[in-house]
Amino acid sequence: MGKVAKGGKKVAAAPLAQKKSAKGTKTNPLFEKRPKNLRLGGDIQPKRDLTRYVKWPKYVRLQRAKRIMLMRLKVPPAIAQFNSTIDKSQAASLLRLLKKYQPETQKDKKERLVEMARQKKEGEAAQTKKPVVLKFGLNHVTNLIEQKAAKLVVIAHDCDPIETVCWLPALCRKKDVPYCIIKGKARLGALVHQKTATCVAVTAVRQEDSAELGKLAEAFKGQFNENVEIRRRWGGGIMGQKSQHVTQRKEKAIQIEQAKKLGLSIA
Question: Which helix (H) or strand (E) segment is 70 a member of?
C-alpha cells in the first residue's frame, strides 16, 4: 500500500526489489570433462620420483655402503687424519703454483733430447737444460723424503687402499719435511699427465716462486706437521638418526629414574 502524504496526496509504492539469481558456472559444450582413471588398464600414471626404488649398480651400492660404514665404525687417527684437508683457497693457490712445474710430455722430452744431441754433435755447449718439474710416484717421493730433498709433499686424501699412503705423514714428520693433504687424487694426476697420483713432491722452484713456496710450506707445517691434535683425534663413531633417537630416549629414561630416587621432578 502507498503512503499518504501530509497534503493528502497518495505516494506511489516502491517497486519490488528484483531478486538476484545465483549465476551458475557456464560450461563450454566443446570441452567435456574427462576425469582420469588411474586404475589398472586406465590412464598413464603421473611421473613420480622413484629414486628410492631404483636398483643401483653394484659399484654405487658399494661406495655408499663404504661411506656409511666409515661413519659408523671408529676410525683410528692414522686413517682419520686424511679427512683433515686444506681448504678451498689454500688448494687454489697451491695448485696454481704446482701447475707452473708440470712435467714434460713425451713429445716435449723427445724434442729436448734431440736438440741436445744435435748441439753435442756440432760441438756446441748444451743450452737446453733439464727443466725443474714436480716429482711423482710413491717410491720416488719416499726416496726424496728420506734424503730430505723434498721441500713440500702433497698427498691425496682418497687413495684406495689408504694403507698405501697412511704412513707417509709420519715419515714427513720424522724427516721434518712439510706436507699437506689435498682432496682428490685426480687433481694431482692432472698435474703430472696421469689419471691419478697418490702424491707429488716439490724439490726446487724458480727464484720468483721461492717466496710463495716458503709461505705455503710454513703454513702447512703449522697445520699438519706440528698439529698434535690430528694425530690423536679418532674418526667415525657417528650413528644413524634412529640409533641417536633411541640413545637419547634411554638417557632421558635414566635421568628420570635418578630424579625419582632423589625426589626431584624433570619436565
Answer: helix 58-72
Q: Give percent of the chain above pLDDT 90.
A: 59
- 235 beta partners: 75
Q: What angle do CA 200, 202, 203 make, to 5 degrees?
A: 130
Taking Cα atoms as reference points, which of 121, 113, 117, 101 lies closest to residue 203? Answer: 101
- Rounded to an integer, what distance in angstroms lies between the CA atom of residue 183 and that of residue 196? 12
Question: Which amino acid makes up residue 228?
Answer: V
pLDDT per residue over 109-118, tens digit each? 888 888 888 8
> Peptide bond before 169: cis, by omega within 30 degrees of 0?
no
CA distance 72 to 57: 23
- Predicted TM-score of the model (pTM): 0.71
Interval 27-48: pLDDT, tens: 787 888 889 998 999 899 899 9
CA-CA distance, 214 to 226, in Å (whole number)? 16
Count each helix (H run) and each strand (E run) in the chain, helices first. Answer: 10, 6
CA 42 to chain centre: 45
Q: Phi and psi for 199 in degrees, rounded to 5?
A: -160, 155
Cell output for 129: 737444460
Q: Is the confidence at residue 259, as pLDDT, over 60? A: yes
Q: Which residues contact 216 (CB under 8 A, 6 or more apart)?
A: 90, 93, 94, 97, 152
- Asked if 86 and 227 touch (Cβ cutoff 8 Å), the reply is no
Is the pLDDT at 5 greater than 60, yes or no?
A: no
For residue 49, what is its C-alpha cell? 620420483
CA distance 193 to 180: 21
184 Rama class: left (phi>0) / alpha (psi -120 to 50) / beta = left
